[in-house]
Every structure is written in structure tokens, then in C-alpha cells.
Amino acid sequence: MAAKYIFVTGGVTSSLGKGIIASSLGKLLQARGFSVTIQKFDPYLNIDPGTMNPYEHGECYVTDDGAETDLDLGHYERFLNSPTSQANNLTTGQIYYNVIKKEREGAYLGKTVQVIPHITDEIKSNFFRLGETGNFDIVITEIGGCVGDIESLPFIEAVRQAKWDLGDHNSIVIHLTLVPYLKSAGELKTKPTQHSVKMLSEAGVQPNVLVCRTEYPLPTDIRKKIALFCNVDVSSVIQSIDAESIYDVPLLMRKERLDEIVLEKLKIGKTKDPNLETWKGFLGKLKNPTKEVNIGIVGKYVELQDAYKSIAEAMVHAGAVNECKVNVDWLQSENVAVDNLSEKLSGYDGILVAPGFGERGIEGKIAATSYARNNKIPFFGICLGMQCAVIGFARDVLKLEQAHSSEVSSDTPDPVIDLMEDQKNLKQMGGTMRLGAYICKLKKNSLANQVYGKMEISERHRHRYEFNNKYLEQFEKAGMIPSGINPDTGLVEIMEVKDHPYFIGSQFHPELKSTVENPHPLFVSFINAAIDFRKGGERTK
Q1: For 184-200, how does the pLDDT look when each residue is reduced to its tens digit (9 = 90+)?
Q2: Is 230 an annotated catalytic residue?
């Protein structure tokens, strides 16, 4: 069949969970046997989130093909267990850039270039691209921002036009909105939803389904009121109540019949019931752990956990497969120092040093790696976390007391971490890092080899600095070995310490490939090592 299109919009407020609803619906449709993909259109003018501060936009997610994208693509991959690409995330910046480039090339034959039709046509062509080229049955498109935002208007207009282009029963709009509970009045209020749908309707788009975020169950009379004032069927008013875990949402949406309603409106014939046994098995392990560990994550953006969203979710996946409750404490690296290490870190069964950029908080990260190494605590370093472990080892073991990364200290006499050669003459910041999936060959019988169970892997990267191979021989002789090497460039991808229960760092970002159905082996083995460490001392925090 030709691809069908589902557009997901949001109103009232941001952060209602459009990405989770889109991912949950995608999972339900996939579980019925459909080929599904999800894409995100963001209304900001940045080309991508690659140059944004994580406090501004949360984590920058990276795909296999090197696209720096919105963090919702992580949800799409974790739920659907299917990789996304550059084609799955578009921004206003990219849309305008493409149109202006075409105008400079003379593509519009002297016409006046306008929002309608040129910008909206560019948006629509990207709406349809995956459906035309990707062999998908259903394409779900999430529109970022809120209805009523000035920057969202071209996207909403493009949705209106796309529905007209596609004709009846080939597309639907799902609108996510909020039904707040006013404690003083003791009741749920539908007015924000009514106003949100009114604004969407004024833009020419009538939603087919309303998904209502709420803290309390929606009684029948409230659903009828919403249906009446918003011009939708009562059966199409879906309750999305706050859930214990985002991984509960597909089952909650199944209970609300969201997938059935969508299939009815798209005139897709009767299909088999969704097979969610694997998903239910994951939830069963997640909610009924037999073990428990405490993990300290040392990072510089910990006040906004969305900055480390994929790491947090990879911990959930690894905990479930180990039938272990993983208690995570997020530790601000600026508050970790040599004179308070025992106070800050002694209660943990495992220490993870998170990625990041720049000088702020780096000494705390370096100190944390040394504490884990010296006290035989399971350690996992990611990207800058691996680099900090290298710096700490150089200072403590190799006695290179001024060892550092040239990113932070340009005049260090021992730049054990240095700028990659192909990065040294770059002037442009956006999209110029080493990005995307690269092959890595593993050292036989190393910890990395045992964890992965194979000799060659492919992982995603996002960095400019690397291990300085001039120091490689010194590190190997002292007991820190390069157990993963890029075969084409010789870049060190994984470092690990011998004679330690579990001490490993990766230059790449393994968290980006962890899904519900395929938890990442490095996270699984890290949690398993933390379980063993806890058993050894029956540690409690």
C-alpha cells in the first residue's frame, strides 16, 4: 500500500510528551506488523542542535549517518528498535537554508520567493520523502513546539496542505493537549484544550484524535465535553495519564485503543492484534527487580537530566536485563574535588563519568576516574569521560603531573588528549566534529572483546579531540591498554585498565544505540560489574 501519514501536534505547553506518544503509537503499529518510521520537525532557526548548550535543548542525539538531531529521535529508536537518519529530523533553519540555496541557484525562475508556496512546499517535500523512498507503510511526523507559536505557523500550514494533497483517509492529525487539575476548584479543566484546538482549527487543521495529558483519569462527562467543543468523536478523546515509566505508555495507549482508532480513520483493514510480549517481558523485569545497585554519574549538565537522556535510558535497559533496580545519583562535577572524593563517591557500586565539552568541572571528572581506579570500583567513561580517565592515569601512574587535554590547556607539556589532525584548520563549528558511526576493531581477550563477544563493532561518535598516540606505548607498559582501535585511522576508541574489576572508557557514545529490545552490552556489563561489586562488600548507601 502507499504510505499513510500521521501528524502529531501539541498545544497549551511544551514538554507534554509528543515524542513519547509518537513513539508509543509507532510501537503499537509496528507490533501489528506495519513498517513504521517517525520524524521530527523542529521550528527553531538553528540548522541542528549541534551548537546548542545542553541546558538550552537537552541532549544532542547523533545518528549513524552523522546527523546531530533532536533528542526525540532517541525515543524513536529506543521504542522501535530501528535506526533513524538525517531524513528523520528537519528544522526551520534547514528548510530556509535549502530554499535560499535554491533561490541563489536560480531554481525559482525569477519568482518572488515566499513562505507560501516555497517554504511550505519544502516542508511538505520532506514530510513525504521517507514515505516515497523508505518502503514504510506509515510515517509519523511530530511537529515541534506549540500550536500558536509564530515559528510553528509554516509547519501547521504545511500540514493543512499535506492533508489536502493526500486526500481522505491517507492522513490524520493527532493533537496532544493538557487537561489540568485545579486543586483549589477540585476539578479538571477543559478550557486549555478547547483553546488549543480552536487555534489549530483557525489555522485550517481539524484534529482527528485528541490525546489529553492529565494527572487524573478523565471521566466520561469530561470526554464528552471535550468532544463536543473540539468537534471530534468521543471515542477519539484519548486519556494520557501520568505514567510510572515512559515504557508504560504503549500499553496505556493500547488500553485506550489509540492504535485501533488510528487504523479505522486511515481506513486500514483489520490486522492482527499487536504482539507486545517482548515489551511486556521487559516491563516485568523492570518492575520486579531481584537486585539493587547505586550508580553515581559525574557530569557537568546534571541539573537538566535531558542533557544525558540516552545515558539515563541505557541505564534503565541495562537494569531490566540484569533484573536490577539501578538507583542513579547525578553528581555535579564542579562539586567533586580531590579533598572530598570519599565523601562524594564512597557509597556507589559503580561510577560513570559522562560526556561534555570545555573546562568547567573537568578536574572533578578527572578526580572521579582516579578514585574509581584506586578503589577498584566499577568505572565507565564515555567520550570526555574516557579522556578524563586517560588524563588521570597519566598524572597518577605515568607521573606526568601536568598531563591534560589541549582542549582545556593549550600549553600543557603532555597533551595526552589532543585535537584530531583533520580538525585543526576548521573555522566553522556546526556539523564539523567527527560524527556518526565508525568501525572499531577490538583487542582479542580484552574486556571490550568479552563484553561485545566479537572482534569488530560499529559505534556512533561526536568529538573533536582524541587520545594522543605519541603516548600509547607508555600507557600500555603501565597497564592502560587500547582495546579498541579504528582500523582506518589508528584512533583509539576504547581504553581499559588491567588488574581492575571493571574499568573501561569509550571515545564513542554507546548510549545512543541502546534500545528496549537490544540493551547496549557496555551498559549491561557495567551494571553486572556493579552487582558483583555490591555482593563483595554488601554495600549500602
Answers
A1: 888 999 999 999 999 99
A2: no
